[in-house]
Amino acid sequence: MNAVSTLKEYLKIFLISVVGACIMTYLSCSSCSNDLNRFATTSLFSTLMWMIMWIGNDRLTHVISLRISWVDHPIKRLVVGVISTVIFTILVAIGLLKSWEYSWNIKFGSYNEFVIISLIITFLISLFLHGREFLLQWKRSAVEAEKYQKESIMAQYNSLKSQVNPHFLFNSLNALTNLVYEDQDKAAKFIKQLSEVYRYVLDTQSKEVVPLKEELEFLDSYLFLQKIRFGDNLNIEVELTKTQSMLAPLALQLLIENAIKHNIVSSDDPLTIRLTEQGKFIVVENSLQRKTTIGEPSQGIGLENIRNRYKFLSPLPVEVNETDGKFIVKLPLIEVE
After folding, report:
1. pLDDT at 299
2. What is the DSSP letter of 209?
3. What local confidence, expressed as pLDDT, does residue 111 receive?
4. Comparing C-alpha atoms, which of 183, 185, 197, 269 is closest to residue 226?
């Protein structure tokens, strides 16, 4: 909120407070109608009280909403809001009364009636403020949910597009052509594993997360195809045990595919890829031996696609590092109740 908007807001609060204080004084102070000086003094005090209550509760409501979300914890937010409002109102009302009495030498008599009236007025104002804050948070939540849904759909589309790519199919069919003449049994197994890969891709395209156990079973089929293509030039080490955890579908396969696509895989420079666990992360690590020219053009949606998907799935970020001749990606494990 800029300075002009803030000034307009405070001016509005001041005008409403003046009108409300005059009405409150007229209705609650029978002697004020015959004593203009007393009417003005009491109205001024009521105006001050209204403004402090209004602005104070507005700030209090905003601070509480930042710490406790209406959307995630509505009951807790309501209870904390009510208790905070009561405590704030009582403290401010008694504090103002004592300060006013001391400054103007005016006796208000019993505090009970005044505090009760203050509470009633404050609750009416707070009801409006809490209601407004709830509606604003609900609106922001709805807008963000729609935005996240669109981004999630786009990320899933990009994920599918990056997995079912013609280069992988082309290379697989080339390998199959050679196998048909060399080893028909292995060729039959190759066809079965290739169908398993594409079946899994199609089955998971609409899923946000999958069990690690299912992803590893799919990875076995995918790695079988790659081992046929590269033989001993490609070394894959999988050391994962937390099979009850969840992760984004096809994320591991995409990282392995990227490592193969961007690094030299040859008898002179075999490529090693390791999948291990480290706390709440799966670590995908490969030896860094970049190609000087890349045969398969990058679609530009590999790591960025994974990062975008994990924004919706985990509070932990995807970590990417290059160190000691290794390229390392850490994927957060997702615990789903």
Report:
1. 43
2. -
3. 46
4. 197
* Cβ-contact 308, 153 below 8 angstroms: no
Residues 74 and 211 in one domain: no
* pLDDT tens per residue across span 239-280: 888 777 888 888 888 898 888 888 999 888 899 999 999 888
- The residue from 96, 126, 155 where one domain ends is 155
The CATH number assigned to the domain holding 243 equals: 3.30.565.10
Number of domains in the chain: 2
Burial of 2 by CB count in 10 Å (0-12 exposed, 13-18 middle, 19+ buried)? exposed
Could you list the residue range(s) of the whole structural domain that residue 244 is in? 164-332
Whether 337 is in a domain gets the answer no
285 has pLDDT over 90: yes
Instruction: Quote the CA–CA distance of 299 and 327 in Å, as a whole number.
Output: 19
State the Cα–Cα distance between residues 302 and 252, nearest whole angstrom.
Answer: 11
Give the C-alpha separation, 199 to 176, whole Å: 18
183 and 116 assigned to the same domain = no
What percentage of the chain reaches a pLDDT higher than 70? 70
Token output for 297: 């053009």
Q: Are 284 and 271 in contact (CB under 8 A)?
A: no
Rounded to the nearest integer, the mean pLDDT of the chain is 77
Whether residue 183 is contained in a domain is answered as: yes
Q: What is the DSSP letter of 294?
A: -
Q: What pLDDT is attached to residue 110? A: 47
Residues in the chain: 337
Tell me, what's the pLDDT at 32? 65
Same domain? For 125 and 181 the reply is: no
How far, in Å, CA of 77 to CA of 57, rounded? 14
- Would you state the pLDDT for residue 305? 76
The amino acid at residue 212 is L
